[in-house]
Amino acid sequence: RSPKVINNYLKDPKTYGTRKSPGRPKKLSPRDERKIVRAAAHSTKGCRQIKNDLRLNVGKTTVWRTLKSSPYIAREIMEKIPSFKPHHKIARLEFATDHMTWNNEWSNMVALTIGGGSVMIWEAFSSNGKAELAIVPTRMNSNMYIDILENHLKPYMDRHKHEKLIFQQDNASVHANDKFLLEIEIVRNRHNVLASGFTKPKSHTKNVWGILVRKIYENGKQFENIRELEVAIRNAWQTLLVQTLKKLTESMPKRIFQVINRNGGHTDY
Predict the structure, then answer these.
(1) What is the CATH number of the domain that holds 113?
(2) Positive or negative: CA dihedral 42, 46, 47, 52
(3) Is-contact 198 82, C-beta < 8 A?
C-alpha cells in the first residue's frame, strides 16, 4: 500500500472505504442546460416543446428541473382575475339572456375593437373574414375614427354587401360621439347595430388579441423600435386564418350559456 492510503486509513479506520457514490451522472451537460434556459427566456414554450426543439434525449421533467433550479428563470403564480361587481354580473346576465337564441347571427357579427399598448390598432372581423388592420394614434378623436371607417370598414362592407351584418363595438368614447353614430348609421345602411359595453361576456375578440400577441412575440422576439413592432403586427394580422375566426365565432353560443349558468360570473373562455 502507498503511504497515502495507509495515512487515510489511520485518520478514520471506521469510515475508510465506505464513501458512497455521488449518484447517477447527469444526463444534461452544462451546455445543454444553458440552451434550455435560453429557449425558455422570454418565451411561452412548454417543457415538452423545448425538449423537442433542442432534440434532447431526456424527459420533460428533466427540463422542468433545470428551469426550476436556474436563477435566471422567475416563476410566479398568476394573480386571480378581479371579481365582478354586482352591476357587472347583472349587465352580463342581461346581455346573455337577450342573445341566448342567437345562432347564425353570431356568424354575421362584425366585431370592431381598438386596443394596444405602445402601438394602438383598430381591427374588424367576422367569421367570414377580416378588414384591413389600421395603426391608430394613441389619442384619437371621432374625426380620426370616422376616417378609419371610411378607409377600412367600408371596403370590407363592400365585399360582404349581400350579407346581413351586425356590428358590435365596445363603449369607447369615440363610439358614443354624435359624429360617429351618424357615420356608422350611413355605413351600416339597413344592417343592425349591436352596441355592447365592457360588461358583456368575454368576447372572442379577446382570443384574437391573444393569438396576435403570441404570434408577434413568439420565440422571444424583441423589437428595437416602434416601426419594427408595427410591421410584426401587420404580418401577424395577415397570417390570421379565417378558419380560426370562424371557430372562435362558433363558440359564442357556448360562452353565452356559460354566463347564464354562472349568473353573470366568470367563464372558462
Answers:
(1) 3.30.420.10
(2) negative
(3) no
Give the amino acid at 45.
K
pLDDT digits (tens, 9 = 90+) for 20-69: 666 788 889 999 999 998 888 766 678 899 999 999 999 999 999 999 89
CA dist 26 and 86 (Å) reads: 55
Tell me which H or E stretch contains 249.
helix 242-250
Tell me the residue range of the domain where 59 lies. 26-78
**Cβ atoms within 10 A of the Cβ of 173, count?**
11
DSSP result, 102-120: -SHHHHTEEEEEEEESSSE
The pTM of the full predicted model, rounded to 2 decimals, is 0.64
Grid coordinates in use for 47?
417543457
| Maximum distance among all Cα pairs of the chain, rounded to whole angstroms | 103
252 near 267, Cβ under 8 Å?
no
**Bridge partners of 192?**
166
Question: How many C-beta atoms surround the C-beta of residue 5 within 10 A?
Answer: 11
The cell for 110 is: 362584425
Cβ(205)–Cβ(113) under 8 Å?
Answer: yes
Q: Are residues 30 and 117 in the same domain?
A: no
As a whole number of angstroms, the distance between CA 120 and CA 140 comes to: 10
| The domain boundary residue, chosen from 39, 58, 78 | 78
Question: pLDDT digit string (tens) for 168-180?
Answer: 765 555 555 665 5
d(CA 133, CA 111): 13
